[in-house]
């Protein structure tokens, strides 16, 4: 075996151990980056290239030969060439017989070809052992050493010996190999890097839609309607009041959507009378992105908390309070302290805090590192508590509203339907900001919207 790398990287090369030579086909970005990394880890590198003389920017210590010459130097060959150019490999079938070919290629689109690139390579060079690896690692990450984000290398292949050798190399490079089984898994591995936040797409679009929809709904209700009705300019509501109503609605809707697919799945299983049948694709996907839905919901809930905390320092709120006090004083009206109202309002806020705390707890327990330490029953326990708190909170809220404004009782029947069907959602949808204490008139009108 040759040792060309010793001069370039004497510090990583232990003279007593003789590292194997690895052949890399293709002197492009990825080939060069991988070679550099391998040289640093003590391997000898032989490049195979169409133009061995013209190749430039190659790492020091690497040798460049023609494809067929390079292939003879090593029995592990990394194919750093795009799939479209694999054609030349058919001429090398004899040389490549019995060797390990590592397919690192990616495609531009998901399921671009009927068979995976690795399986295609195996068809082109029948005598070789094809192993899929490295495709999830980027050339940039290899060069800059920024591998903390993704150290995982999915490896699959039909020949277990060849696969084991590739996994050893992956380990030597300081990466974590994950055995994905036979070459049949290659397709999935190739699709993986093309999926941009695969499980986040649906939650993202859904929450964007919810936000936009409810924002405009609230604008029509709280800005345009009062303007048309009484010429009142309340555009300032678009900064805090309306977002603070939109966020909790979005949070609770998303939270409901976290639990809904489980119920649908259970109903479906009962209806079919078996659990050994696949769910429809939409349900499957929905189930798989529940954690993301939950985390987005938690994000909205946190925003809601922040927006709620600033309420007392808002000019509008301070002005309203001051004005009420002055009006009351000049009219010499009395407003005796009501312990029950104090109780209701305090417990309302307290339940909100506890509900949020448990929501955060649920978010934390759903993180993989934490959920491993929490068993399923403990997880359910936290979830059920959140549900209970949400429910209680909305009931106290409705109770306090009803007390603070006897007029509210008029629409009581309608509201009860809402309470039963969508407890906390409804309570938030109605009034999420301070206005509940001093906009009773207006609220009676708006409640009828639901
Ligand atoms: N860049 C990246 O971050 C990653 C790339 N990959 C995969 O690695 C493979 C190579 O990618 P990358 O290095 O970026 O691509 P480049 O275009 O930079 O390099 C491809 C190399 O293929 C060789 N080649 C052989 N035959 C042909 C041909 N007919 N036409 C053109 N080139 C040919 C060339 O080397 P020569 O001139 O020496 O013959 C060329 O340098 C691809 O399959 C890609 O999907 C995978 C993960 C990440
Ligand atoms: Cu709230």
TrEMBL record:
It catalyses: 2 Cu(+) + NADP(+) + H(+) = 2 Cu(2+) + NADPH; 2 Fe(2+) + NADP(+) + H(+) = 2 Fe(3+) + NADPH. Its cofactor is heme b; FAD. The gene is STEAP4. It is a multi-pass membrane protein. The keyword Plastid does not apply. Its main location: membrane. Residues 21-107 form the Pyrroline-5-carboxylate reductase catalytic N-terminal domain. Keywords: Copper, Endosome, Ion transport, Iron, Iron transport, Membrane, Oxidoreductase, Transmembrane, Transmembrane helix, Transport. This is STEAP4 metalloreductase. The chain crosses the membrane at residues 204-227, 247-271, 292-317, 348-370.
